[in-house]
Each structure stands twice: as structure tokens, then as C-alpha cells.
Amino acid sequence: MWAIIGLALTGIDFSRMHSTALRLAGGFSSYSDAVKDVITAYGIDRLDAYGISFNLIGIYIFYLNYLSIRSRSLPRFFNIS
Q1: Contact at 8 Å (CB) between 36 and 28?
Q2: Less packed terminus of the chain by CB within 10 Å, N or C?
Q3: pLDDT one-digit tens code per residue, 51-80
Q4: Is 29 buried (19+), middle (13-18) or exposed (0-12) by CB count in 10 A?
Q5: What is this structure's pTM?
């Protein structure tokens, strides 16, 4: 479930960034120099600015690794504990 939430959040964030970038690029030449400087300096607003979606996917991967080591489907070589 964590990976599904993380991947959904990533997809929504990238599609939102894409639409915002296209909207800004369409009128960029008509903006004043001050607005162009602000857009260039700060970039595009992100829904997931801190990478929470990638952390959720990482939690899921670590949990899968833990389960596979515990069930002995992975060799003991990979067990770091």
C-alpha cells in the first residue's frame, strides 16, 4: 500500500509540474523581466517538495527486503544484522 500511495503521489506531482511548465512556457516571452527572474530563480512549484513519495516507496522496498531475509528466500550473505 505504501508503494502505491508513493507512486500515485509521484504521478500526480509530475503531471501537475508538466501542466504548470507548459502554461508558464507559453507566456514566458511576454512576462516582465522581474517575473522572468522570479520564475527562473524559484522554478516550478512542487506538490511533493520534500520527496515524501520516494520515501514511501523506499519504506516499501526495505519492508520487502526484511520479509525476504526473514523468510530465508534471500541468502544470508545479504543479511547485515
Answers
A1: yes
A2: C
A3: 788 888 888 888 888 888 778 776 666 655
A4: exposed
A5: 0.59
